[in-house]
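check this one:
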Amino acid sequence: MPIGDGEHWVIMGRPESGYSVKVRSAARFKGVPHEWVDRSMRNEKLFQSHAKVQLIPLVFRPDGSSTQDSTPILDELEKAFPTPSFHPEDPALRLLSIVLEEYGDEWVNKLMFHHRWGCAADRKVRSTTLARGMLEGSPLRILSPILARFVVRRMVPRMAFAGANTNNTPLLLESWANLVEDLEAHLSRRPYLFGARPAYGDFGLFGQLDQALLDPTCGAHLRAHGPSVVAWIERMRHPKVEGDFEVFASLEPTLRTIFSREVGPRFLAWGVANERAVAAGAPNTELEMDGRLYYQRTFKYPAVGLARLRKAFAAVSEEKGLRRFLDETRCLDSLEEKGTSPSSH
């Protein structure tokens, strides 16, 4: 493992982690000299000695320092390896791509998580692969069935933290169906979200949808209803420049549906409600989505992400075409609203 060799980045993650495969895909696209290391009991001491939070990926820079949190990692890679860029030159497309990256990380993760740990077949498959992977190469590997049961007991209660509760189930199922339908319409016409090369938004959505494709329930749905989405997921495992970004006018018709059905009224609406709850010190976040109650635990980190989106929008807020698009898709008010901007952890 070439940690601190002055040349290589090391990504310690798991193939069952959407945020890990997101970073690996970005590193491959950028041509970053890197090595992937599965987190397991064999390297747990190394992980614990560097990790600030119990989350993956843990990424080691060439100088041996480490970092976590996939979105800032992508930003760091963009600075260190500016070509090929994650970002379209068109300021409107750049902003929409940044929004979709956050949407993938924060909202699509809920949809994947709901199915992964809420469906019996999915729980069995994923807990088994996680347990076997963590014990790979260890004398304790014969205990993987016991560890798998422990993983289920740990993860199922966490569903509530992701908003995957009984009340929200109809909304989450509807969001999943909407997303697959809308992405299929969009990606049937192009290899990546913004044309013939991947953008920032591709990586955020890819991480969670790659995981969905691996799981029995969502995987079956994708193969039945989203063949173009499946092809895009497989393409994003080794993304490359195949041509240019498209212009806003050619992308707008099918992007509009994604933003008007999902990004604006659901993801950003929840983000604003969560931000207000953080500011008020409220333990739970509640809001109405399409006439139905949505609620979950309040979390500080999504408010940090919303602040990032507002900062990105402020830099391009005079773009009339973009403002019209965001207004008509119920995104503008959320991105313009002045709120509390918590500091990151």
About this structure: Residues 339-345 have pLDDT under 50 and may be disordered.
